[in-house]
Each structure stands twice: as structure tokens, then as C-alpha cells.
């Protein structure tokens, strides 16, 4: 028997960095070991772009250093959507916006173990991607979101919220759900002009 629970919701690792890391714990009964615990580290990072040479390799090095199993990425800016392996890492991503080429795009980089446990994925648009993992005792769905900035119009923001709401409604009650990403939140009081 195993259960999954959130250890903490994460926090910034380094000042001036958008890398956030949290962990989930999977408890399994392993032969000869009672209540063995296996933690999965899940993180999200707005990378600003992956169009620069060597940036993907840097991400893989950082994942290895931080022992991150699943990394949700915002602002990849790659032109088309795809799914491929790079060494021991699987990358699943959406393409950048067709309306604004070279902007947006979300995706996941996962280690080899979890890359093999992907049951499916849905690339909604350049702002939302969903990946379903085979985990025990229940499947886990991870959603990466890149919200529009405060400069965007209200219709665009509402459309993203509606899509997130649809995703949540389609998740079965017994599945684990993680929704994460860059929410582009503005904190504080609005300045009057």
C-alpha cells in the first residue's frame, strides 16, 4: 500500500530566481522494509527562453544538482510542440503562441524513471500542458500553467482560468492533481494615477 502527500508547497531556492521546489512523498511497502519512503521532487521555473544554445543542458544540470524529478517550465519559446528524450531526460512541451511567435510555451522535463511512467499528456495551448503519470496507489496529473501578464486583456486571462477549470473538472476524484506554474501575480495595492 502506498500514499502520496505534499511535504511542503515550496519556496524560492535562490534570491532573484524563479526556481521553486516542493516535494511529495510516496510511501510503499517494500519487501523486507516496512513503510519505505520515496520522495519525488517537483519544481516549476520560468526560464524566460530555451532558444539560447546550451540552456536545456543547464536545466538538466540544475535538475540533477537539486534532485528534481519533474520540472515544469514556463516561457520555453520553442516554435512547435513536441515530445523527445535528451539523454536521461524526457521533454514534453507546447509550442509558442501562433499570435505572438517567440513568446510563451510551457513544458515538462522529467528524469528517466518518471519519463517512462507517462501515461499520456495534453498540450492545450501555449499556456497550459497536462501530463499524467502512472503512480501508486493512484495516477498523478501534473499541470503546468503560464498565466498572461497584467498587461494582457481580461478576455485572455479569463480564457486561461476557464481552461484550468475544465481541466480540474475532468480529473477523476481518485487521481492526484498538481497545478503549478508562473501565475504572473501582482502583489500589493493598485497605484492610482
UniProtKB/TrEMBL annotation:
One of its GO terms (molecular function) is double-stranded DNA 3'-5' DNA exonuclease activity. One of its GO terms (biological process) is DNA repair. This is Craniofacial development protein 2-like. Residues 43-186 form the Endonuclease/exonuclease/phosphatase domain. It comes from the Eukaryota. InterPro entries: Endo/exonu/phosph_ase_sf, Endo/exonuclease/phosphatase, ExoIII-like. Pfam families: Exo_endo_phos. The lineage of its organism: Eukaryota, Metazoa, Ecdysozoa, Arthropoda, Hexapoda. It comes from Sipha flava (yellow sugarcane aphid).
Amino acid at each position: 500500500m502506498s500514499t502520496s502527500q505534499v511535504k511542503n508547497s515550496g519556496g524560492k531556492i535562490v534570491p532573484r530566481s524563479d526556481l521553486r521546489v516542493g516535494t511529495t512523498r510516496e510511501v510503499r511497502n517494500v519487501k523486507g522494509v516496512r513503510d519505505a519512503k520515496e520522495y519525488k521532487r517537483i519544481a516549476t521555473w520560468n526560464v524566460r527562453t530555451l532558444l539560447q544554445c546550451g540552456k536545456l543542458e543547464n536545466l538538466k544540470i540544475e535538475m540533477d544538482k537539486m534532485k528534481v524529478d519533474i520540472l515544469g517550465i514556463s516561457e520555453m519559446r520553442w516554435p512547435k510542440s513536441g515530445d523527445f528524450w535528451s539523454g536521461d531526460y524526457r521533454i514534453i512541451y507546447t509550442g509558442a503562441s501562433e499570435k505572438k511567435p517567440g513568446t510563451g510555451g510551457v513544458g515538462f522535463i522529467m528524469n528517466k524513471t518518471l519519463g517512462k511512467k507517462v501515461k499520456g499528456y495534453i498540450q492545450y495551448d501555449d499556456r497550459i500542458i497536462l501530463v499524467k503519470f502512472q503512480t501508486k496507489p493512484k495516477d498523478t496529473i501534473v499541470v503546468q500553467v503560464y498565466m498572461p501578464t497584467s498587461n494582457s486583456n481580461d478576455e485572455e486571462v479569463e480564457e486561461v482560468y476557464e481552461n484550468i477549470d475544465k481541466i480540474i473538472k475532468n480529473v477523476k476524484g481518485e487521481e492526484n492533481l498538481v497545478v503549478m506554474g508562473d501565475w504572473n501575480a501582482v502583489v500589493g495595492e493598485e497605484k492610482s494615477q
